[in-house]
Amino acid sequence: MKHTNRVSPKEVPKQAEKPRKAVDFVTISPEDEGQRIDNYLFRNCKGVPKSHIYRILRSGEVRVNKGRIDQTYRLVAGDVVRIPPIQVAERPQRQHVPERQFRVLYEDDHLLVIDKPSGVAVHGGSGVSYGVIEQLRAARPHEKFLELAHRLDRETSGVLLLAKKRSALVKLHEQIRKGSVDKRYQVMVQGDWKNQRQHVKLPLHRYLTEEGERRVRVQEGGAGIAYRVQHLAKLR
Prior knowledge:
The protein contains four helices and eleven strands. By secondary structure, it is of the alpha+beta class. The longest helix is centred in the C-terminal third of the chain and has 13 residues, at 166-178.
């Protein structure tokens, strides 16, 4: 008769966990003003999954000035943020992020503008260990602040703006929200594009996945977004 060695549940090592912390009340400084509350929590609650951050936001456990807010709330200097106790598992040793230099189109004390190649994610996420921002931080350890001002899809190449100061990031986000930033995309389509210029308007619905990732799909009831499309060339 064969004997199988079985491991008792008591013998299975548990993942190490940090002690449960008390409720924190944090007063927002002018340097942190303008950030979305979810991004602020991602930065200050290291090791906590995004899904858990969104859960405590939806449940009202996170409060600002004693009131409930959603994940889109933008912080104001002087806000008092209530952060509930969070059980944080000890994180394994971080994976090495290789340095990488990207072609710099413009740089000053406030901005860094690079040419992002196709096939490179702008940041780590689902199935991606690291992206442009992590590699740039590894290549520029002297930079005290370096953040993406916007995002480009992994397969999209083009101009990518990064802020080197919090004040620059806030200003860029404000300009993007107001629509004062001119964004132009060049795409290749299949078929016979008949008009030299054409307006395309579709209802786009923005939503978040359970992991907190932003997604957009064409859906009735969504915001009507208009695009002006100009035909540049025909390839045969």
